[in-house]
């Protein structure tokens, strides 16, 4: 998917090193990517599904045991390549 004209902004909830960027200025799509891999894969949502997707992630993170963090994209990628 080519997103010519996308204006990427960093998530206000992202950490200083593990940033998620979103582009929501294009008609019919909200795109999300890892700021450390801007040429890499991205997720695309319709504007109507974007809010519920964010809510699901928030609920999953709030249900995680205290002191734990979800795996980073690079950790998931390493797990796939070593399995």
From TrEMBL:
Region ranges (Disordered): 1-22, 59-83
Pfam families, per database record: DUF397 (PF04149)
All copies of domain DUF397, residue ranges: 6-58
Protein name according to UniProt: DUF397 domain-containing protein
Organism (species): Micromonospora andamanensis
